Amino acid sequence: MIPRYSRPDMVAIWSPEQKFRIWFEIEAHACDAQAALGVIPKDNAAAVWTAKDAEFDVARIDEIEAVTKHDVIAFLTHLSEIVGSDAARFVHQGMTSSDVLDTCFNIQLTRAADILLADVDALLAALRRRAFEHKETVRIGRSHGIHAEPTTMGLTFARFYAEMDRNKQRLLAARDEIATGAISGAVGTFANIDPSVEEHVCAKLGLKPEPISTQVIPRDRHAAFFAALGVVASSIENIATEIRHMQRTEVLEAEEFFSKGQKGSSAMPHKRNPVLSENLTGLARLVRMAVVPAMENVALWHERDISHSSVERNIGPDATVTLDFALARLTQVVDKLVVYPQHMLDNMHKFRGLVMSQRVLLALTQAGVSREDAYALVQRNAMKVWEDGKDFKTELLGDPDVTAALSPAQIEEKFDLGYHTKHVDTIFTRVFGES
Amino acid sequence: MIPRYSRPDMVAIWSPEQKFRIWFEIEAHACDAQAALGVIPKDNAAAVWTAKDAEFDVARIDEIEAVTKHDVIAFLTHLSEIVGSDAARFVHQGMTSSDVLDTCFNIQLTRAADILLADVDALLAALRRRAFEHKETVRIGRSHGIHAEPTTMGLTFARFYAEMDRNKQRLLAARDEIATGAISGAVGTFANIDPSVEEHVCAKLGLKPEPISTQVIPRDRHAAFFAALGVVASSIENIATEIRHMQRTEVLEAEEFFSKGQKGSSAMPHKRNPVLSENLTGLARLVRMAVVPAMENVALWHERDISHSSVERNIGPDATVTLDFALARLTQVVDKLVVYPQHMLDNMHKFRGLVMSQRVLLALTQAGVSREDAYALVQRNAMKVWEDGKDFKTELLGDPDVTAALSPAQIEEKFDLGYHTKHVDTIFTRVFGES
Amino acid sequence: MIPRYSRPDMVAIWSPEQKFRIWFEIEAHACDAQAALGVIPKDNAAAVWTAKDAEFDVARIDEIEAVTKHDVIAFLTHLSEIVGSDAARFVHQGMTSSDVLDTCFNIQLTRAADILLADVDALLAALRRRAFEHKETVRIGRSHGIHAEPTTMGLTFARFYAEMDRNKQRLLAARDEIATGAISGAVGTFANIDPSVEEHVCAKLGLKPEPISTQVIPRDRHAAFFAALGVVASSIENIATEIRHMQRTEVLEAEEFFSKGQKGSSAMPHKRNPVLSENLTGLARLVRMAVVPAMENVALWHERDISHSSVERNIGPDATVTLDFALARLTQVVDKLVVYPQHMLDNMHKFRGLVMSQRVLLALTQAGVSREDAYALVQRNAMKVWEDGKDFKTELLGDPDVTAALSPAQIEEKFDLGYHTKHVDTIFTRVFGES
Amino acid sequence: MIPRYSRPDMVAIWSPEQKFRIWFEIEAHACDAQAALGVIPKDNAAAVWTAKDAEFDVARIDEIEAVTKHDVIAFLTHLSEIVGSDAARFVHQGMTSSDVLDTCFNIQLTRAADILLADVDALLAALRRRAFEHKETVRIGRSHGIHAEPTTMGLTFARFYAEMDRNKQRLLAARDEIATGAISGAVGTFANIDPSVEEHVCAKLGLKPEPISTQVIPRDRHAAFFAALGVVASSIENIATEIRHMQRTEVLEAEEFFSKGQKGSSAMPHKRNPVLSENLTGLARLVRMAVVPAMENVALWHERDISHSSVERNIGPDATVTLDFALARLTQVVDKLVVYPQHMLDNMHKFRGLVMSQRVLLALTQAGVSREDAYALVQRNAMKVWEDGKDFKTELLGDPDVTAALSPAQIEEKFDLGYHTKHVDTIFTRVFGES
């Protein structure tokens, strides 16, 4: 995570201020529950809430931690400075540090997921808009980077929409996985704290109680969470790669938006680089690299070891901040992408009708020509196009062996683009529920 | 995938015979749909089904492929040899190879998921049985590999159960993701084939039609699938690691089952190695290594490039076969794990009551002793245990400063294991719905 | 590793026959050393060598292993069947299974490295030949997929040569890392076997003795080995990606060789797919996926755990066989690549001289025109090219404000391709030692 | 990279100040070379060096970049503010941004490698000292976590020394790989700048000229660099895992140093957690996660795309800072590790001599007892130890069938620890060159 690739809302989730705020809420709600059980005095629990609107002094907490070498104790000491040692003396009773740390981490991930979901929604809106805008904008479909059959730019946007919509579902599932909390004590037995405290805190903070925890919340949840981010990132790479291809000098079917004032744009109009999409390709690698360490974190020793912690202190902010930035950047790229329909047609016609050779071949055989003869007929006309720069349809219309099997109208029909776009509405209805 | 770590049912899914069987079904069902549309004669469609019970000759198909260098064409040629060229001439009409290949791959992955789900069910049953068996078998809980507070062996099994139950949900979601088919032609536009063919084939084969495909089914689905396998594998590593720790010479709280006849077992009774669990640790790495390449496969060029294919030809069988084997092996290990409750108690008492020092400390402060004094009291008695081998409870009972604050009964109570197990039923009810 | 992507020599290294052959040699050489020390009778050692030319019966060994559940014991039992139980009784004395297994694995990896080095040499030869062939074949250099400045196809081949030459050095280092053997007993202390046995066996088999082993050879060596393979694979992806770009319909600067008889090539001459290069992209992912598990294998417990074994049984053959196949395939692709120099020129001129706009801008400022004015001059002429399809040089020559600053000859000079190729010889001399 | 796991010297390498300082030196040296060639006036080149001791104003550069959206131009503008626009006008002439950026990045990596090499040297010194200190400290060697045969703590340290010494060689090779620079222009042809400029700049900055670059330095070098870091990290995990095992409550053969004042240490003397080693395990995962993205960065499009940049902006600092911190932390852990030789002996004797059962078995067969009988003899005595808590040697000495084959002295000899340590000096000489 570096400022260059960060947005403030997601960064804020991972700020020390925000972390201490969440810690406070966990502790304060736990006090309420303990008071309800009669374990601690109601007045003390109430007094803790006087810190509700306080600003926690991060520098002061750091200062205390430098002595105690324990972040939760440092925070509690500072809290005591705010609410008074009398109110503070029952805070954290029966709890273990991980109760606070793990519940907080899951709250942060849950909130991060909420931002990512909003990001995806914005991206979906842009993809949808562009899909309908270019529903009928014909371009050549390519397999292996080679011209195959016509498709439309709208279908390209529509498939990215469908893919991102699946990612939305994956993020929702990931959010659901991670939205748990645990207040279960040193080894998860609730020996020193009643399960109702966990239930209360979780209810207040929008979490489900972790059905069974040890000292920590089980890390398979986090592995699944970061794996979902990795899939989303891979889809971003997918879209970015398409745009990079479209913007290649020789293809030039689309360009990232280039602001008028941007230096060099008009003196070297050929030199507009898809740097945002290239950047997205790299960002995808960054998000994806969190997946394997998150999976390595699952196998903790017995009721916990702390090997996961340093990993999560990094990948927690890094992966979410980077993915948030990437989704927002991609949304902007999609939203403002300059599409060149004429270039699409020019490219499709680069080999003067040859992309239709397969349809002609099929038509000849269906008209009763033997497979071998049909092949030879197509081949001799195709070669004139490929080697001598002729137009395929013209050649076919001028070849008596071809016209003996197919009428001029039938030949014309093979070059009709409508043949290829006739099911676009069907597909749009599948994807968007309307066309 | 090597025979040593393979089971026949999963291997069968990936056999050439099975693949050709699936290809046949896709083609034959597509013929039916085409006939229903009137695109091809009904008789021809019916005639294709004469190959229904035929054995496809893999060697013969390989022979043809050596000439045509195209696997689907080789298969279709062989099919023609079986059903006759007349019946065969309408097979595959309007379809592209990927329609067959991708739909088949997803069927294979779906069936693989079904086996994995059955594997997980068997593992869940074993974990549940062992959890209830050892619900009250007390052992020391450990954080950082160091004794913390008592827990029970049943809780250990129960948390593995809960984790695997989450994995079951992940596998179900992954199965759902991958259970799609596509018969949409060269670039996914249905130019040469009606969408109703896709719908018919999918319905017959238990798939949903892919809402929008290109030449291929989008690979974010597969990335999510293999990511789910990676999470399951990481959980296997988690359980295996616990068992390996339990079987360490110095811990010896459990052992993998060791058959009577197994060489060396009784002459060197101390040398029983947790080789199955160690093996599972390695197998987890093997399954996990499919995750990143599957994610790298997502960004195909335009309507498809074939870079994903070689990856999937390997990780498809490898990851599913290895995970199937690992789940079955783990089930056996769990099912037959030899548990040593007495060793658990012995270990817990290794430091003669010191694990209860925190409870005593807390009790002293709650009895009104200042935090500093309480700490000093516990410390001086703890040191006698640690350095001189004394018993903690005995020392406390003999320390007048301690007994001034706590009655002998109160001290005794601090060493009561029931304190730690009182919520086991609560947790079991959360996990299993009963206790 | 699947047959489709395998070559016989590399596969043979990993065959059971070859493995047992190596095991035999380790054991027989160890017997010689033990006999020299007087630990076992010289006659027995000599008798073991009677199996020198024997075929080991893999099926028989498997049969024995099914009973003993131990592969080395099964082999030794079978060896005893060949050389007689009297000769066999001193075989393996003082050794531990890993002495055989680990030394064998390193021999296999060393031999695999030798094949890979030969593969790289063949690839280097092809790259060198093509580099000199196209040393002066001008093509446009591209950054971000966008035309930048001219370069030559020879430089493209030359940089791949330089990269692969570095990979050769990495493979040599990797081979050196892995060429060690260990015969050091159960925990590496030589308690039951003299270090001179290890020295003798290693000397005979072309290995260095591992300076300090435990039960196993340390796995950081293997991690470094597989990491080197991962880098080589990434370079393969790099070259493959270049070729895939060059073969795109719109670029068409080169094509993978397409044999005359290959179906469809002439009826659809535009549809020649770079499937070999795409396949290489996927194979690179497969090789690379061995890197992380190999690194995870390093941290074995104490003097060894066996978690690495299942990983290595897979990635050992898989990564080396796949990389061997990929290197050979790439060599063939490079060797036969069809290069289209005219298309390269056509592409370069797609925007009729605009790629030279930066040189013109620089020349104007050097001729004393202010930066702002120079920019405006270039811009107004560039726009006529970009929007109206004019020729850049012609426009410049016809612009009096331009010709006021630059003579026609000076303008012409800016479009001289020799300007860009003048240091090709320098670079070739750096890379190849000659030009 | 977060402050918690960072050390200032390595962080400084990646500071903006340091980056601009390196940029300045590249530009200033390039001016000298250009002046020597007569391309720019010598006075201007000299004038640039007036900024030699200037502080570059990072905030000001950021401010300019916010307008120009180009970091190198922003820097050059600021440089112009320092040295005057007259001196500055020839700076960067003929160069491309990547000439500066890539050469700078490699300088930073080279300097990072120097710090890492110094870190490894410090670690080697600590390992060597502890190895000699505990050369003869006997402990049980373990395979599979199970007691095998005796070894010494010195051998454990010695093997970590040998492993880290190999890592030193790998880091040296990685440093050598990355210590190149390139000043070769937009596509690497030296069209606008003479190769002698590159040579001069590289010579001044301790780099080799990159033999052939494009717009960028080839990324296989960086892939190899980060792969080397990944191997080092895996070795750190290896050592950390050993320490974590040793500190387990049941093993307790060593502990991380625990300062007297550290809270809780004496009231709960059993609860000292190996948190530093656990942390190192996590840090290893963080370093390792840079390996795959660095490999994915190799396949750039044509003469460059910028996808690698965002990856490197993160993994450059992150991997080196984290590895530096981890090496230093590990050095401290090793240096101060508290070793418990008595616990080592206690553990070895946990099963009262059973670890010697294999030696006894071998001795019996060598004394002429049949394998079956020897096995039965060992077994019946071993069972008395295992099940009834007897002492193995005592039982053997009291078993007339055993003493019929082996004299008491022979039996005693089997329990002699010197048998296992007799080659420690040999191994030390191999590893350290002395013993």
UniProtKB/TrEMBL annotation, chains A, B, C, D:
<dbReference type="GO" id="GO:0006189">
    <property type="term" value="P:'de novo' IMP biosynthetic process"/>
</dbReference>
<keyword id="KW-0456">Lyase</keyword>
<dbReference type="GO" id="GO:0004018">
    <property type="term" value="F:N6-(1,2-dicarboxyethyl)AMP AMP-lyase (fumarate-forming) activity"/>
</dbReference>
<dbReference type="InterPro" id="IPR022761">
    <property type="entry name" value="Fumarate_lyase_N"/>
</dbReference>
<dbReference type="GO" id="GO:0070626">
    <property type="term" value="F:(S)-2-(5-amino-1-(5-phospho-D-ribosyl)imidazole-4-carboxamido) succinate lyase (fumarate-forming) activity"/>
</dbReference>
<dbReference type="InterPro" id="IPR020557">
    <property type="entry name" value="Fumarate_lyase_CS"/>
</dbReference>
<dbReference type="Pfam" id="PF00206">
    <property type="entry name" value="Lyase_1"/>
</dbReference>
<keyword id="KW-0658">Purine biosynthesis</keyword>
<dbReference type="InterPro" id="IPR000362">
    <property type="entry name" value="Fumarate_lyase_fam"/>
</dbReference>
<feature type="domain" description="Adenylosuccinate lyase C-terminal">
    <location>
        <begin position="352"/>
        <end position="432"/>
    </location>
</feature>
<dbReference type="GO" id="GO:0044208">
    <property type="term" value="P:'de novo' AMP biosynthetic process"/>
</dbReference>
<dbReference type="GO" id="GO:0005829">
    <property type="term" value="C:cytosol"/>
</dbReference>
<protein>
    <recommendedName>
        <fullName>Adenylosuccinate lyase</fullName>
        <ecNumber>4.3.2.2</ecNumber>
    </recommendedName>
</protein>
<comment type="similarity">
    <text>Belongs to the lyase 1 family. Adenylosuccinate lyase subfamily.</text>
</comment>
<dbReference type="InterPro" id="IPR019468">
    <property type="entry name" value="AdenyloSucc_lyase_C"/>
</dbReference>
<dbReference type="Pfam" id="PF10397">
    <property type="entry name" value="ADSL_C"/>
</dbReference>
<dbReference type="InterPro" id="IPR024083">
    <property type="entry name" value="Fumarase/histidase_N"/>
</dbReference>
<comment type="pathway">
    <text>Purine metabolism; AMP biosynthesis via de novo pathway; AMP from IMP: step 2/2.</text>
</comment>
<comment type="pathway">
    <text>Purine metabolism; IMP biosynthesis via de novo pathway; 5-amino-1-(5-phospho-D-ribosyl)imidazole-4-carboxamide from 5-amino-1-(5-phospho-D-ribosyl)imidazole-4-carboxylate: step 2/2.</text>
</comment>
<dbReference type="InterPro" id="IPR008948">
    <property type="entry name" value="L-Aspartase-like"/>
</dbReference>
<dbReference type="InterPro" id="IPR004769">
    <property type="entry name" value="Pur_lyase"/>
</dbReference>
